[in-house]
Amino acid sequence: MKFWKMNGAGNDFIIINNLIEKIPADRLPVIAKTLCERHMSIGADGFMAVGEPTEGSGADCRMLFFNSDGSIGEMCGNGARCISRYCLENGIGHDGLVTLETTAGIVTGKRITERLFRIRLNDPSIIETEKLLSVDGKDIRCSYVVLGDPGIPHLAVNYTEELRDLCGGADHLMDADRSILFDIGRKLRFHEALPKGANVNFYELTGENELDELTYERGVEDFTYACGTGTGAVVAALTLTDRVNGDNVRVNVTGGTLYIDVEEIDEENASVSVHGLFLTGPTNIVCKGEVTDEDLVL
After folding, report:
1. Backbone angles phi, psi at 160, to 5 degrees
2. Per-residue pLDDT of the chain (298 residues; tens, 9 = 90+)
C-alpha cells in the first residue's frame, strides 16, 4: 500500500489513493488506528483516503477522513488543504483547483503557491456565540459552532481571567499549565450538554485581528499542533461578536500560522450566520513510501 505523509501547520496525516488501492471501506478504520499510532507505526493525527465521489456530487473525489483512534471524522480543514495538494500532484482536479466531497459537505481547495493552499470550509450550521458550561462546579463561557451539516462541533473558549486562575495564573494561553488545560479540555470535549462532543479551542486575542489558539481534538484525544476547522469556528464566532473583522485574521498555533477570511455575515429573521469561511495555510510533504507494517493485516 503506497502512502504519503503530509502536515499542515503541524497537523499531520497519512494519505492513500484508494482509487488505486481499492481497500474495502470497512477495513479503513482499523488501518487508520494502526498506522496513526506514533510509537508502533508511522504516526499521525489522522488518516485520509481518496475515493470515488458520489454520482451527481460534482466533486473531483471523495475525502474519507479518520481520526487517529479510527473513528470517522466529518471533515478536517488542514487535512483538506493537504489532500488538495495530494490530489493536484496526482492528476486529480485541474487549474489549481480540486473539489472534495466530505461527510460535512463539498469543500473546494485552491493552490496559492507551491506549498500554500486555501480551502473554503463548510459554512456553520449552528452558531451560539454565548454558551455557559459547568466543569467541576466552575462556569466556563464559550461559543459553540458547528461547521457543515452533519457538522464538526467546536467550542471556542477565551483565555479569560477565570481560566487563568484555574491554570495557575499564567498571563498568556501558551504559557498556561498544559496538564490543567488538558483536563479542562477533556471534560468540555465530553460534556453532557454536547450531543456529539466537541473539539475544544482555547484562544487568546493578542492584537488587532490576531490570536493564539490551542486545540484539544476529539478522536485524537489530545492537543494537536493545529486544527483548521477549529480555527475557522473561533474566527467565525469572534467576527460575529465584532472582536475581529474577519479579514485575513492571523491565528498562531503550535505548528505555525493559519489565516481565516469571512466573506459574508448574513442577518435574516433575527438569526445571524456566516457564509464563505476560508482557511489558508502551509502544506508539507514529509515522505512518500510503502506501508510494510507487519502488524497490519489488509
Report:
1. -90, 180
2. 999 999 999 999 999 999 999 999 999 999 999 999 999 999 999 999 999 999 999 999 999 999 999 999 889 999 999 999 999 999 999 999 999 999 988 999 999 999 999 999 999 999 999 999 999 998 999 999 999 888 899 999 999 988 898 888 899 999 999 999 999 999 999 999 998 999 999 999 999 999 999 999 999 999 999 999 999 999 999 999 999 999 999 999 999 999 999 998 876 644 568 889 999 999 999 999 999 999 887 6
Q: State the pTM of this model.
A: 0.93
Closest-CA residue to 220 (of 195, 186, 187): 186
227 is a catalytic site residue: yes
* Alpha-carbon distance values, 30 to 12, 25, 166, 255 (Å): 18, 10, 38, 27
76 is catalytic: yes
- Residues 82, 87, 142, 227: which is the catalytic one? 227
Number of Cβ within 10 Å of residue 211's Cβ equals 24
Sign of CA dihedral 118, 124, 129, 133: negative
Choice among 61, 76, 82, 142 that is catalytic: 76
